[in-house]
Write a structure and sequence with these properties.
about 190 residues, mainly alpha, 8 helices, elongated, about 70% helix
């Protein structure tokens, strides 16, 4: 019994030392001021991202003829009331009705948005890294693995639906992650 008690006492005396060693290797947590600065940075960049999205949306709408704008609105309305909306089929129908010039302007607006959004997110990551404690850079701030990710080429009909449809409808149709990727949202962690 004495040996068991001695072993238990020894084990309990080592635990605080091991915990202290782990604390010394753990990254420093951001201070309240650093967290506030990071939150303000995120809010500022989210507002800039929303502005970029609005610009793309306006460019896409101006690329459409009045007849095609009404057709897109009707298609989105039909999808909204369908019990099982087939967004892929709707996107193909929209893409087929567009003129080559409309398709090109829509894809150009989307590509420009995607490039600007990617630059904006890189600026945000750089700024957030500078606001973190010197040894507190979590691995979630490391997105170098995303550098090689190629931009997925979409058809104009898909871009129309994703850029002009209300978000809840697109998320319900299983496009939440697609929208984040398309809109240059933060890479998955």
């Amino acid at each position: 019994m004495n040996r068991t008690l001695l072993a238990l006492a020894l084990a309990l005396s080592v635990i605080p030392i091991a915990a202290l060693a782990d604390d010394q290797n753990a990254p420093t947590q951001p201070t309240a001021e650093q967290r506030q600065a990071m939150q303000q940075t995120m809010q500022r960049f989210m507002a800039q991202e929303a502005q970029l999205h609005q610009q793309m949306r306006a460019q896409i709408l101006s690329a459409l003829t009045p007849v095609h704008r009404r057709a897109v609105a009707a298609t989105i309305g039909e999808l909204a009331i369908e019990p099982n909306p087939d967004t892929a089929a709707a996107a193909k129908r929209l893409d087929a009705m567009l003129s080559p010039g409309e398709r090109q302007r829509i894809l150009t607006a989307h590509s420009s948005f995607f490039d600007q959004s990617r630059q904006l997110h890189e600026q945000m990551r750089t700024e957030l890294r500078s606001e973190m404690p010197a040894d507190g850079h979590p691995s979630s701030m490391n997105h170098e693995k995303m550098e090689g990710t190629a931009h997925v080429q979409l058809d104009a009909g898909t871009v129309l639906l994703t850029a002009l449809s209300p978000r809840p409808m697109m998320e319900m149709a299983g496009h939440g992650a697609f929208m984040m990727h398309m809109e240059g949202g933060p890479p998955p962690q």
